[in-house]
Amino acid sequence: MSRLKALQYYLLARLLLAPLMIWTIVTLVFLLLRATPGDPVDAILGNRAPEAAKAAMREQLGLDQSLWGQYWDYLGQLLRFNLGQSITSKGTPVWEVIQTHFPATAELAFYGLLIAVLIGVSLGSLAATRSGGAVDAGGRIFGIVTYSLPIFWAGMIMQLIFAVGLKWFPLGTRFPLGAEAPRGWTGLYTLDSLLAGDLPQFFTALYYLALPCFTLGLLLSGIFERLVRVNLQQTLKADYVEAARARGIPEGRILWAHAFKNALIPVITVLGLTFASLLGGAVLTEVTFSWPGLGNRLYEAISLRDYPTVQGLMIFFGAIVVVASLLIDLINAYIDPRIRY
After folding, report:
1. 114 and 204 in contact (C-beta within 8 Å)?
2. Do 56 and 272 meet the contact criterion of CB atoms below 8 Å apart?
3. Count of Cβ atoms closer than 10 Å to residue 145 Cβ
4. Rounded CA gap, 115 and 284, in Å?
5. How far apart, in Å, are the Cα atoms of 17 and each of 11, 21, 275?
6. Distance, CA of 265 to CA of 275 (rounded, Å)
7. Which domains does the chain have, with CATH numbers?
8. How far is the C-alpha of 156 from the C-alpha of 171, rounded, in Å?
9. What is the 3-state secondary structure (H, E, C) of 191-227?
10. pLDDT category of residue 206 using cuts at 50, 70 and 90
11. How does pLDDT run across 231-282, given as a tens digit for each residue?
């Protein structure tokens, strides 16, 4: 079987499995939400609300049905691409909640991951080319520390130092309160302001992005530093690299033209999955910095037992990860001819 044919069969198999994976996510989220203690009606109306009002609310939400009745009713809605209506947003459709908050999450994820890759790949490459020395040891310590730090703790420390102490950056939010935010079809403030040619708005958006993105990027950079360092060290010991050295090819050309490309293959896999998980909501980062993204909205929905919003957002996140994993496999197969499916 040719490589192209095998890749086509693999793609078809993954496309057929995708609905099964999403159904599994839907079922788990549905059951886990209802297994957790607490009543969403009490969370909305309060414990002292009249029983008649509670009964009417349960009927409105479909909670008066049996568990199986609720499950089949919800699956029927999903087949019609209806994620339901948010309980805590006065009946706003969950699709509208996603449309409103997803651009903020996407912008945070993109710039945070960009910082993580720049720092991680640079330090990893530097440590790999100086294997066994102080730089290599420093790279290992950096990778372990940044990977281990809790994001909420690091975020609060960064806020205390750079926002409260030095007053270099704002504590949180996405744009100054009372100021007119950039308007555009993307919802990405930096991109919309550039498309509109409004540089003051662009730099203001970057200013408010700086602290949460740098915090997120710094903690994620340890993952990429460790991956690049380990894989590049192994690649530099490969036979084809030794043969290139024997032919007198300069070390810099060997590093960038031969070793670096092959060392980046596992990095691409982690990069794609990390970006997909960030698009699924960097919950702790968004909550710490009061960032109005999907992660923050998910946290609020869980706190208030907003079943439709939690279920809709988790399905949306799961679909992102499923699609991203499929794209990553295809990109890896295109980059590395040795990969077979």
Report:
1. no
2. no
3. 11
4. 18
5. 10, 6, 22
6. 16
7. 3-79 (no CATH), 97-335 (1.10.3720.10)
8. 9
9. HHHHHCCCHHHHHHHHHHHHHHHHHHHHHHHHHHHHH
10. very high
11. 777 777 777 777 777 777 776 776 776 677 777 777 777 777 777 777 765 7
